[in-house]
Structures are given as C-alpha cells and as structure tokens.
Write a structure and sequence with these properties.
Blueprint (H helix, E strand, L loop, with lengths): L6 E2 L6 E6 L14 E4 L1 E23 L5 E6 L6 E2 L4 E5 L2 H43 L5 H40 L2 E3 L4 E3 L9 E2 L12 E16 H4 L7 E6 L6 E9 L17 E9 L2 H4 L7 E18 L4 E5 L10 E10 L2 E12 L3 E6 L6 E4 L2 H5 L8 E2 L15
Helix pairs in contact: 1-2
C-alpha cells in the first residue's frame, strides 16, 4: 500500500486519509468522495436542547368557590403578600340572605324539637301508667296497644325533629362558610404575578380552566424553573439531577445554571395511537440554581432556551458519525416477528476495506462512541451514506500520496 498522506483535522484530534480506488464508483468522479479517519479517544457530551418558559417552582392560582361581583381588589400586580393577607372582596348580599334564612330554619327546627320532646314526655308518662294498669288487668289489651302506638309515634316524631335540627345546623354552617369565602385571602406568601381580575367584574366559581375563574396568581419567586417539552426520542436520555444551562431572550449574553428537577412519565399533549403519525412531547422541569440576587430579574412567562447535558463519556473511543451504517438483520423463523439491525463500519487495512460489526454507545451530531469492534488508531472509512453503503467487505482501496479531500475512489471487490 502506498504511503498515506495525513490531514490534520480542525481540532487536531484525528487524521484524514483520502481513498483512491482502482475504478470509478457510481456517480460522477470526484463527487461525494470517501475519506479515512483514525478512530480516536475523546470526551463526548450529548446534550438535549429545547425552548420553554420561566415559571416559579411554587405558585397558586387564586380563584373563588362562590361566585359574585368583585367589590374590591386589595392588591396590585407585582405586590408581595403574606399568608392571610386580604386579596379580594366579593359582593356579600346574596350570602348574607342565605345565612339569615338558614338561621331562621334552625330556630324553627329547634322549636319543633322542643315540642316533640314535650309530646314524647307526655306520651311516655301515659304509656307507663297504662302499662302498670295492663299488668294488673284493669284495662283492655286494645286500650294498652293504642297507648303504646301513641308513645312510639311520639318517639319517632322526636327523632325526626332532632334530624331536622341537625340539617338546619348544617345549612347554617354552609351559609356561614359561603359568606366567609366572599373574602379571599392569600394561602401562601409570594408575589402577585398575574392579576387578571377587575373591580366590578363577576368572579366565576370553581372551574379554573375557563376564562374569569382565575383572579390572580401568587408565585414564590425564591425558586425559579424552566419548563420545556421534549420529544419522545430525547426524553429517554433525560434524568433528574442532570446539569443544564438556560438562556433568556430578554437577557442576551447571560447564562443561568440549572439541574433537571423532574421528567414527566406520560405525554403532556399530542397523545397519539402509537402509529408514528404524531410525535409525543413530555414535560421536563429544570430548576435554576443561583442566588436570590441573580434570580430576581426573572419573570414568569419569559421565553428561554435550555440545553441539558444528557450524557457524557470521558476519553471514549470514537469514530465520525458518517462512518456508521445500519444493516438490517432478517428475523429468524420461529424466534421473532420483527427484523433487527446491526451497526457496521468499514476499516481500511492492507489495501482493502474490512466490514466490522460494532457496538455503539453515546452518539452526538458528529461522533459515535464505539464500545466493541474497533481499536484506537485504526483507519475508519467515512463519507456520504450512499457511497459508503455501496462498499463491500474486501473491496480494494489505496491512498494517493499528496491527494486532497474529495479525490477518493474505491475499487471493485476481489
């Protein structure tokens, strides 16, 4: 084999050799030529990038359980509040009337209970006398049974009266609770970051997923996070604790550090049928690390770009990404239904190319980690996938002395 001409890569980490064959490959000569690069050791870092937005780690949507006109808003957007601080007051007239009615119902029920208790005492006393007379044979059985029935009816009436009192008490407690909820107070300390209500508007009770139901948002600004959505191909690389960097459009040139806080186990949206027609997205939250002084410039809703260090390998044996080819492996009858695949590369050695099945590891946009199948320093063939795919094991190659990249050819196999 002729002496190889060595080309120093931009980073100075590998050598490029130009292949010259004994005959022309398919396509025009000189178009998309093959090259050779030595397998080398280097540090690899695989990152996942996505866009997202800044949010407070802890926040609450302030709404109301009871509806009504907003009579007064006691805070402003951006104001710091503490637990128990007064936020909003709603119109109370309706709930005051409801409480008054419940109070009257309770009074009436208690009066009915007092009457039922008196009736029961009288019926019970009469029954005891008739019972004694019956045992002495001084009254008929029919008279005794009549008085016994009257006593039982009085007892049942007493129980109904007691139940009615309990019901009235519950209605009054509910009315008082509804009235208390017309005065809305902060349930956590933080900053008002999304005041959406206006005085005179009608607060909608209960449902926070419709317009008007959320009156404001209170956020704990001491801990901020970046929330992003990652596709199904990248989410498998993510794990809690991974380091990250965050940049904001609003703060060019400034980079915040962070770590992955949690990775969703179910799609956030775009649930498909598993037929590959729709990509799944998973929510990933990255907690920003930094001092309170550094984080105070952040605002919920700011757009950001996030890069997460998904994996890294120190001094990994690597080859160029373009050197690796995937080959289909047909399924063996009776073993599996789906065909598999194997990863192969071509190594230039002794004037020929050798096909090697390799085991790959970490993959980046430029390089692939090789775990098995190649040794450091071996010359690996790389180039356009179509040209590389046309190589066959044992095909002759040679290196033209003094050639420049783009002049490589490969000969026919023996």
């Amino acid at each position: 084999m002729k002496k190889r001409t060595k080309w120093i890569l931009g980073g100075g980490t590998g050598l490029v050799l130009v292949l010259v064959g004994l005959g022309a490959m398919t396509g025009r000569e000189g178009e998309g030529q093959l090259q050779v690069e030595a397998a080398s050791l280097q540090d690899l870092r695989d990152k996942v990038s996505a866009t997202g937005e800044i949010q407070a780690r802890t926040k609450v949507n302030v709404g109301t359980i009871v509806g009504g006109e907003i009579k007064e808003i006691h805070v402003k957007d951006g104001q710091e509040v503490k637990v128990g601080d007064l936020l909003v007051t709603l119109d109370q007239e309706r709930w005051l009337q409801q409480k008054a009615q419940a109070d009257l119902s309770l009074r009436s029920a208690r009066q009915d209970l007092a009457n039922a208790e008196a009736t029961h005492r009288k019926a019970d006393g009469t029954f005891r006398r008739f019972d004694a007379l019956s045992k002495q044979g001084l009254i008929s059985t029919e008279e005794f049974q009549t008085q016994k029935l009257a006593m039982e009816n009085a007892k049942n009436g007493l129980e109904r009266a007691r139940v009615q009192v309990q019901q009235a008490q519950s209605q009054l407690a509910l009315a008082e609770d509804n009235l208390s909820k017309t005065v809305i107070r902060a349930t956590m300390s933080g900053r008002v970051t999304g005041l959406q209500a206006e005085k005179g508007e009608t607060a909608i009770a209960g449902q926070t997923n419709i317009a008007g139901a959320v009156l404001m948002v209170i956020s704990d600004m001491s801990e901020m996070m970046a929330e992003m959505r990652v596709g199904e191909v990248d989410v498998v690389k993510m794990s809690p604790g991974a380091t990250a960097e965050i940049q904001l459009d609003a703060l060019p040139g400034q980079t915040f550090k962070g770590r992955v806080m949690n990775v969703a186990t179910a799609p956030d949206r775009g649930r498909g049928m598993g037929n590959g027609q729709e990509s799944q997205n998973y929510k990933v939250r990255v907690l920003l690390t930094g001092t309170a002084e550094e984080l105070k410039v952040l605002r919920p809703g700011m757009s950001c770009r996030v890069a997460v260090l998904a994996r890294e390998a120190k001094q990994a044996l690597t080859v160029p990404l373009g050197a690796v080819q995937e080959r289909e492996v047909k399924a063996k009858e009776g073993e599996t239904l789906l065909s598999g695949s194997r990863m192969v590369i071509y190594v230039a050695k002794d004037g020929k190319v050798q096909e090697r099945t390799v085991k790959t590891g970490l993959t980046t946009r430029k390089a692939v980690q090789i775990l098995e199948g190649v040794k450091a320093g071996e010359d690996v063939v790389t180039g356009p996938a179509k040209r590389l795919g046309s190589l066959t094991d044992g095909q002759k190659v040679e290196v033209r002395k003094g050639a420049t990249p783009g002049e490589a050819k490969a000969g026919k196999p023996e």
